Amino acid sequence: MVKIKERMRKSFLAVVIMMVMVSLTASSIEFRSENIGGRIEGLLLISYNDFFSEQTDQTIEINNYLSVSIVTNDHDIVYQEQFQVIMSINTDSLQGFRYLTLYDEYFPLKFSTEIEPDEYELIVTLNSHRTSQKRTYREKVNLPQEKKIIGSSLLVARIDDFMFAIRDNRYLIDRYDEIKLWQHYSETPDTTKIALSVDGKSKHVSVSEINELYDKLRGIDEFTIEVHNKYNEKTFNSEPVFPTISFFFQERFSPDQQLAQLRNILNHNEYRELRGLESDELQQGIDEYWNRLDPDIYSVDNYYQRVFYNRVIYADRNFGIKGYLEGWETDRGKIYIKYGPPDNISTDAFPIGRSPRITWHYYSINRTFNFYDLRGYGQYELREKWMD
Fold first, then answer.
1. For 338-365, how does the pLDDT look when each residue is reduced to its tens digit (9 = 90+)?
2. Same domain for 205 and 256?
3. Are 358 and 347 in contact (CB under 8 A)?
4. Which domain holds residue 186?
5. Among 107, 108, 171, 341, who pairs with 166 as Cys (CB 3.0-4.6 Å)?
6. Which residues of 340-361 are buried (b: 16+ CB within 10 A; e: fewer)?
């Protein structure tokens, strides 16, 4: 068991307390894809925080048009589809659930395409049906070459119109109107069963019994769940995908990359302790760091990890140098990860006789950072190369 000392809690907390925090709710669209027998099966997980909505009394109305496009590096559209998402959510019906929080949940959307596996750009646009509001998300994606017979599984629940991905097995302790198992196959399995493990003992239930898990788990606090598919005498066992901040982060970034990102908020001793772990222990050590920092062990997501994750993703999407540096590796990315969004930004884009400059002002901590495009291709660098 990897042990990280208690003092590792302090440095990031200090920075967070000094800064105005970014929103607690997630603000992102997550994408997963699998190659199932030569066909790309895509899954979008859209934060309810990203939908345009209107609230009247106890009802939240969502009526959004959703466009999904996949384009090549030459900007050719190889896949495009339009969807409409209409929901009328009664907030009273969401009361009494122990872990459910409307704007932390994800709306799941499946699509399928036969485009060739390669690197593409995913473009997702949300439009409000009633107003001219629009949000667009762009993400570089690598569609997988490796073919699977049976893909990952996702549990999807519904309360009236409100449909959401189950983000933790603890959600199953509550009763919903419906729970479905989403899973892609290139060949239909001979059998599919749900395996519940409690105190080291396993029990199998059929897929049709998923809606009855509430009764089977009554009074049970700790358990694990697996999906067992049997095909041609071979069994495929997998845990369902639980879309949490930690899950997305570990899908995007390797343990070494996570450590490099954490370097921006750790002091020297904290960083040295994590860096000294063996490669097969590093992820566990990073997980323990976030667990120690978690202000609410009964929540699904870690508040501080969410803040950190949002900053890293923002930096990655906005400050990268194509083909050279990821956004979180740039000087602007590192400052953004440590201090969050600046209070004010001033630019000098076309100066005479010197390099273009961007200045970030942080009034709450009385700090100013000057970034210069010294090489002329958009890589804005700190003049002073220190990150105290």
1. 999 999 999 887 777 678 899 999 999 9
2. no
3. yes
4. 26-237
5. 171
6. bebeeeeeeeeeeeeebbbebe
